[in-house]
Amino acid sequence: MKVAVVGATGMVGQVMLQVLEERNFPLTELIPVASKKSVGKELTFKGKKFKVVDLETAVGRKPEIALFSAGGETSLEWAPKFAAVGTRVIDNSSAWRMHPEIKLVVPEINAEALTEVDKIIANPNCSTIQLVMALSPLHKKYGVRRVVVSTYQSITGTGVKAVEQLENEYIGRAGEMAYPYPIHKNAIPHCDVFLENDYTKEEMKLTHETKKILADDSVLVSATAVRIPVVGGHSESVNVTFDQDFEVGEVKNLLKNTNGVVVQDHVEVNQYPMPIYAEGKNEVFVGRIRRDFTAKNSLNMWVVADNLRKGAATNTVQIAEYLLSKDWF
Ligand code: 2RA
């Protein structure tokens, strides 16, 4: 099994390699792919050294699977080229997510929708993945009608430049800016670019991708995405209104019994999800689960996940594991 990791030297690419190794993914040859400046570099995987190659070379080796985290432009140009030689591509960019013929997959929710002919598969946005992991079991039981979500997003979602900006500001050193403002001691309500409707692309990803993954266009999502000086993961304050009423205890049990979700909800001993505890883990953590007493059939909850893991690399590898579980290779 030859597996290409496109964007292997980036933050998500590096975590993908970690996750592949941790989960003992049965690959026989790793094909690390990066930009021209990294070609020839050696990466160690499972104690073996693999040379970074360019995209042309990687396609020529015809990997069975290619895990992409290299930006939308690269995905738009190269995912079809890999697919044309029989590779199954799992892409982390937003390039293919809303394409009508491309599946947008969170394995615990909709992997079954995948078929042998799916050669390009989209990995949802990190903030969407953790949201739908919490919403899906509740949608099945009570029918989600409307979601109001505010995100508190890790700077690792922006990349190395953002982490360096925070480090520089923390020690008072000048440096390149990943954001229009200082991130140290700040909260910036601006993730990705603003659109004509005054929402950001990040906010509209939550609105559109949630509908597609839950396969229900009637689900309404209103989002505010905020960047905060945190590195361990994204946090989300979620207010959801259902078609049906619910019992909070039943909601907690539904979530506790959802694969990939961990309920951390004992406020009497100050137990609730936080990025410092989610960092490096693959689950989605849910807490502060409580009825919204101001509105009918409505609930508040707090959702935290490592955006580089379940929000990107782990979800991608889980899709690859699902593909392997079929006799499609
Ligand atoms: C972010 N979700 O956090 C976006 C892309 N990783 O910036």
Automatic annotation (TrEMBL):
Query: Which positions bind substrate?
Result: 153, 227
Organism whose genome encodes this protein: Psychroflexus maritimus
The UniProt catalytic activity note for this protein reads:
L-aspartate 4-semialdehyde + phosphate + NADP(+) = 4-phospho-L-aspartate + NADPH + H(+)
GO MF annotations in UniProt: aspartate-semialdehyde dehydrogenase activity; NAD binding; NADP binding; protein dimerization activity
Task: Enumerate the CDD domains for this protein.
Answer: ASADH_C_bac_euk_like, VcASADH2_like_N
EC number(s) stated in the UniProt entry for this protein = 1.2.1.11
All residue ranges annotated as the Semialdehyde dehydrogenase NAD-binding domain in the record: 2-117
The name this protein carries in UniProt is Aspartate-semialdehyde dehydrogenase
Pfam families in the record, alphabetically?
A: Semialdhyde_dh, Semialdhyde_dhC
Domain of life the protein comes from:
Bacteria
Provide the organism lineage as a comma list: Bacteria, Pseudomonadati, Bacteroidota, Flavobacteriia, Flavobacteriales
